[in-house]
Amino acid sequence: MYKTLILLFFPLILFSQTKTYKVIGVKDGDTVELLMNGKPQVVRLSNIDCPEKKQPFGNNAKQFVSDLCFGKMVKISTDNKKDRNKRLIAEIILSNGKNINKELVKNGLAWHFKRYSKDNSYDILEKQAQKLKLGLWKDKNPIAPWDWRKSRKSTSPKSTNTVSSKNF
Fold first, then answer.
1. Cβ burial, residue 102 (10 Å; 0-12/13-18/19+)
2. Of 95, 147, 99, 103, the residue nearest 125 (C-alpha)
3. Which residues are catalytic?
4. Is the pTM of this model over 0.90?
5. Each residue's pLDDT tens digit in the chain (168 positions)?
6. What's the CA gap between 151 and 54, in Å, rounded?
């Protein structure tokens, strides 16, 4: 009986002892800056990918995250892995227990980033948002941010150092 109670409450006890960090910046929908141990740490939200700032709903995602957590104390769930840009990869948890990463997907402001996620709960949230046509799912053909970034790379003009004779 006692073992069962301990097993039931262990996650709650563990979570309640987790450190909290202040959100000191929101760079975009899926990147925030936390004050961790007196130093700024950029955090990339795990399991999701938000539209880029110049994409439809990119600024909406950033504003959504800012409204939820800027200046607030949050907890993180992380395995302490960093991405290639040295950003800590984590889920951000508000004091009321809401998971910002999941809230973004639930509200149609992020894709489940299946390439880097094995958490099926995000897939379920994404399908619900699609069905309800929330956020970016209002568009007939929303472009995933990884496809948008790829298309921007292939269409960006090559820089040349030629000088026109008209300048002389």
1. buried
2. 103
3. 44, 52, 87
4. no
5. 555 545 555 545 444 558 999 999 999 999 999 999 999 999 999 999 999 999 999 999 999 999 999 999 999 999 999 999 999 999 999 999 999 999 999 999 999 999 999 999 999 999 999 999 999 999 999 999 999 998 888 776 654 444 433 333
6. 13
